[in-house]
Design brief:
Strand 7, helix 6 and strand 8 form a beta-alpha-beta unit. The protein has a 7-stranded mixed beta sheet. Strands 2-1-3-4-5-11 form a 6-stranded mixed beta sheet, sandwiched between helices. By secondary structure, it is an alpha/beta fold. The radius of gyration is 18 Å and the shape is globular. The termini are close together. The chain folds into 2 domains: 139 residues, 3-Layer(aba) Sandwich (Rossmann fold), CATH 3.40.50; 143 residues, Glucose Oxidase, domain 1 (3-Layer(bba) Sandwich). Helix 7 packs parallel to helix 8.
Length: 298
């Protein structure tokens, strides 16, 4: 178990993917300081190499340095985008495994969550600093604070017509659907057997969603789940000739042959309300006619 943060702890903000400026991080830095934390900006902040926060070597060096620095108690990825898969295989997690710390982010950071899950260490899928201060994100930021400081969190979501009722327990894993699809067959690929999988995505064509679900199903990622949590599928796109189904309908089609509980429209993903989830932690998912509840097993 990773120790909860304490006032006075040092945390790092860096980017393993797209570039970002320190000015964009101002609201997040203020928030973290209000929590009593000391903020250290990585070398990738304000760095630029085309779309990336510096070239691969710099992003790898920055992440590695913060992983190995014993005075840094959490690493918060500033933003997503693309780029983490380009460096993840070169990261040395030896010292991190000896002294784990929180790693926070979502979207492209799903790569890190999955890779570290295979080490048996928890991570936090949550709002990132680039989004702090935007309208509607207060609750998302507060759930991140609670998780990092070791406070108990229990979540609920409203009923959805596609929900499949039942109660189940398992480790919570998942993240961005496109990234999970990309990671299959790599060192960062995760086993989903007996686990509660959560999915979210952004800005994808509907036929891409279908293709990725087919692939996950064919590769055995959907058949032996303990449960499924379907988050936001934001800004989905369609072709001139419509695909004919929504993202939720596509997911329902490919998981309809299985019997585990399924919750739709859970607040996780690329929307202002993005609840902090602890990847790798044992949880109980209860789906009823009244909606869904997610609680961690302590």
């Amino acid at each position: 178990m990773i120790p909860p943060l304490q006032p006075g702890d040092r945390i790092a903000i860096l980017s393993t993917a797209r570039k970002i400026t320190s000015q964009e991080l101002a609201p997040a830095i203020r928030t973290f300081k209000n929590w009593g934390l000391q903020v250290v900006l990585g070398q990738t902040i304000d760095a630029s190499y085309n779309q990336f926060a510096g070239d691969d070597a710099l992003r790898l060096q920055d992440f590695q340095q913060m992983l190995d620095d014993e005075t840094i108690k959490a690493i918060v990825c500033a933003r997503g985008g693309y780029g983490t898969t380009r460096i993840i295989d070169q990261v040395d997690f030896t010292r991190f495994r000896q002294q784990p710390k929180w790693v926070v982010g979502f979207s492209d950071v799903t790569t890190i969550h999955s890779h570290i899950h295979n080490l048996g260490i928890e991570t936090v899928h949550a709002i990132m600093p680039v989004l702090f201060g935007r309208e509607g994100t207060i609750d998302s930021v507060e759930t991140l604070r609670k998780v990092l400081f070791g406070e108990r969190v229990n979540y609920s979501s409203a009923p959805h017509p596609f929900n499949r009722t039942g109660t189940t327990q398992g480790q919570l894993v998942g993240g961005n659907l496109s990234m999970l699809h990309t990671l299959t067959g790599t060192q960062s690929d995760i086993s989903t057997e007996g686990k509660i999988l959560f999915l979210e995505d952004l800005d994808e064509y509907l036929y891409h969603i279908d293709r990725m679900l087919v692939h996950l199903d064919r590769s055995g990622k959907l058949c032996n789940l303990a449960g499924l949590i379907v988050g936001d599928m934001s800004d989905m796109k369609d072709n001139t000739i419509p695909f004919g189904k929504t993202a939720y309908e596509i997911i329902a089609e490919h998981t309809g042959k299985y019997n585990y509980p399924v919750c739709y429209n859970f607040p996780v993903g690329h929307e202002p309300l993005n609840l902090a989830l602890v990847c790798g932690r044992e949880a109980v998912l209860e789906v009823s006619e009244l909606g869904a509840k997610l609680e961690y097993v302590l």
